[in-house]
Amino acid sequence: MELPRLYAITDRKKYGEDFLKTLESILKSGVKMVQLREKDLKDKELYELAKEVRELTRRYDALLLINERFDIALAVGADGVHLPEKSFPPSVVKRINPNFIVGFSAHSLESARYAEREGADFITLSPIFRTSSHPEAEPIGLKTLKEVSEKVNIPVYALGGITWEKIKVCYKNGAYGIAGITMFAEKANV
Q1: 13-27 as b/e: b if 16+ CB within 10 A
Q2: Model pTM?
Q3: Do you find a cis peptide bond into 127, omega within 30 degrees of 0?
Q4: Model confidence over 163-190: pLDDT tens digits?
């Protein structure tokens, strides 16, 4: 299966007053993969929101990944999960459900290679640039994006400080796709 090139990651704080309306605007713009990443929600709240997001992503024929919560991903019929770098190995998910799409947050060549060995379908590599989401994180830059993209055989999504003006330079440096929170939310809320 070919993965979409644009990958929206949710953040209720940046999506404005009407989360679902903002997400729908993002989906209407052509984004075909969404990661529900609302780490502050309690289990039941996340499950309820995930059901609504699943309904919305189905309507727009988009893939839905749930951040780390394999149980909720299964419960709502999501397409997969996205695992943080310090989470359990992607191979665990693949053993339980080989059809699940598994993304992995990598921050170096070493963690990208680990994700590939463990069976991840793709990685997000971050932060490429300085980002308001994680202002304390030192950007890894385009050179690392290029190196990682050349040395792993799974899609690499550039993440972190990406703006619409910086997309081309990310693609020129090996990114398969672009992942983001703010860039999609801002465009949807215009």
Answers
A1: ebbeeebeebbbbbb
A2: 0.96
A3: yes
A4: 999 999 999 999 999 999 989 988 776 5
Per-residue tokens: 39? 């780490």
Q: What are the tens digits of pLDDT across the range 90-128?
A: 999 999 999 999 999 999 999 999 999 999 999 999 999
DSSP track, 69-126: -HHHHHHHT-SEEEE-TTS--HHHHHHH-TTSEEEEEE-SHHHHHHHHHTT-SEEEE-
Summarize pLDDT for 48-80 with one digit per residue, the tens. Answer: 999 999 999 999 999 999 999 999 999 999 999
Tell me 15's DSSP state.
S
Helices (H) and strands (E) in the chain, counts: 8, 8
State both tokens at 107: 């921050």
Q: What is the mean pLDDT of residues 133-153?
A: 93
Q: How far apart are CA 99 and CA 142, in angstroms?
A: 32
- Could you give the dihedral angle defined by the CA atoms of residues 190, 11, 24 and 74, in that order, rounded to the nearest 10 degrees? 170
Sequence letter at residue 111: S
